[in-house]
Automatic annotation (TrEMBL):
Entries under CDD domains matching the protein: MDR_yhdh_yhfp
InterPro entries reported in the protein's UniProt record: Acrylyl-CoA_reductase_AcuI (IPR014188), ADH-like_C (IPR013149), ADH-like_N (IPR013154), ER (IPR020843), GroES-like_sf (IPR011032), NAD(P)-bd_dom_sf (IPR036291), Zn-ADH-like_protein (IPR051397)
Domain Enoyl reductase (ER): 12-328
Species this chain originates from: Gilvimarinus xylanilyticus
Gene3D superfamilies, per the entry: Medium-chain alcohol dehydrogenases, catalytic domain (3.90.180.10), NAD(P)-binding Rossmann-like Domain (3.40.50.720)
Protein name per Swiss-Prot or TrEMBL: YhdH/YhfP family quinone oxidoreductase
Matches recorded under PANTHER family: ACRYLYL-COA REDUCTASE ACUI-RELATED, SHORT-CHAIN DEHYDROGENASE/REDUCTASE
One annotated GO molecular function: acryloyl-CoA reductase (NADPH) activity
Superkingdom, natural source: Bacteria
Length: 334
């Protein structure tokens, strides 16, 4: 094997980036770190930002995005991993300024690599990927504050997206009563089948409200939008509630007030699944492997594609059309 296929983002001019599948020499990956044959990757919002040349994610081009990968070790000069071991890589600098998982091969430091739990297929590991780790971590943080789950109301914003769909599935599986908030009315059925007790249109949450607080609608939840959505979610959280935020699809600003914190004791929890110690990630992978996933649920979440379809899908993600989990099959020879 001398060459491999990879997604390649090139900079044409200061504001113009082009994304296509290219055939690259394997030697470009260098000779240090664990060489992994990638079987599956998946699409995350951050990959879309990287492919669009967002300097907050990727600074040097040409570049191969992909913050998640599931594959098999080909070679490890450090001797930590044996050839043939099934492994997962997620987060750190993978796919940001280090060539990522949207490629047939990758090479990464051994400190970024987790062994894939026996009871998790490489494909289902990428059904979860960073999005699943993020949703699982949010629930873990919320449950540290509110260990009781039964009868608690859990809200999810951006519910049709990758993090959102998985948060609906995992929160319902844990026993919460889940409210899914989505900008896509056509997704209500799918979200209900994933476990949502009710679905709300995102429209109302996106308007800024002059009211200092809103009627309490939920006890906890995960917001992946930021901006006005997060402000309104906080205002409508019940006393002593906890809201985790992981994303900024609506923007990084937070123009709200402190009343949810000082009048209702609401907690705002930050989620960063990317830079967690490998031990924490391993434990999260194990917790995800233990979630029983029916074939119907799998079909409701996964859309499996090939690498050639990725440029178009990444561009669509930036427009808010993300739906469930796009899993990329890197070894499909279509
Ligand atoms: N902190 C962390 O560790 C961490 C980890 C993973 C992801 N994230 C962040 O979490 C967020 C969601 O990631 P994802 O992978 O789930 O993305 P995604 O699959 O593209 O989903 C994002 C969802 O947000 C909603 N949305 C509403 N307005 C949008 C807009 N203007 N642009 C884009 N989306 C819009 C859409 O859902 P509806 O139509 O249903 O409203 C969309 O499906 C991103 O900001 C990502 O960077 C953070």
């Amino acid at each position: 094997m001398t060459h491999y296929q990879a997604l390649r983002v090139t900079q044409q001019s200061p504001d113009d980036f082009h994304c296509e599948v290219a055939r690259l020499p394997l030697g470009e990956l260098g000779s240090e770190g664990v060489l992994i044959k990638v079987y599956y990757s998946c699409l995350n919002y951050k990959d879309a930002l990287s492919a669009a040349g967002n300097p907050g994610v990727t600074r040097t081009f040409p570049h191969t995005p992909g913050i998640d990968a599931a594959g098999v070790v080909e070679q490890d000069p450090s001797g930590v991993f044996a050839p043939g071991q099934r492994v997962l890589i997620s987060g750190y600098d993978f796919g940001m300024n280090t060539p990522g998982g949207l490629a047939e091969y990758c090479r990464v430091p051994a400190q970024w690599v987790s062994v894939c739990p026996d009871d998790l297929s490489l494909r289902n590991a990428m059904l979860y990927g960073t999005a699943g780790l993020t949703a699982a971590m949010a629930m873990q943080k919320i449950q540290k504050l509110q260990p009781e789950v039964a009868g608690r109301r859990f809200v999810v914003t951006g519910a049709s997206g990758a993090v959102g769909s998985l948060a609906v599935l995992l929160a319902a599986h844990a026993g919460y009563s889940v409210t899914a908030v989505t900008g896509k009315a056509q997704e209500f059925d799918r979200l209900t089948q994933l476990g949502a007790s009710q679905c709300l249109p995102a429209e109302d949450l996106l308007k800024s409200s002059p009211k200092p607080l809103l009627k309490p609608e939920w006890d906890c939840g995960l917001d992946s939008l930021g901006g006005a959505a997060l402000v309104n979610v906080l205002k409508a959280t019940a006393p002593e509630g906890a809201i985790a935020n992981c994303g900024l699809a609506l923007g990084p600003e937070l123009e709200g007030n402190v009343f949810p914190f000082i009048l209702r004791g609401v907690s705002l929890l930050g989620i960063d699944s990317v830079e967690q110690p490998l031990e924490t990630k391993r434990a999260l992978w194990q917790s995800l492997a233990a979630v029983p996933l029916t074939a119907e649920q799998e079909a409701l979440i996964i859309r499996e594609v090939e690498l050639t379809q990725v440029p178009e899908l990444l561009a669509a993600m930036l427009k808010g059309s993300g739906r469930g989990r796009v899993v990329v099959n890197l070894q499909a020879k279509g």
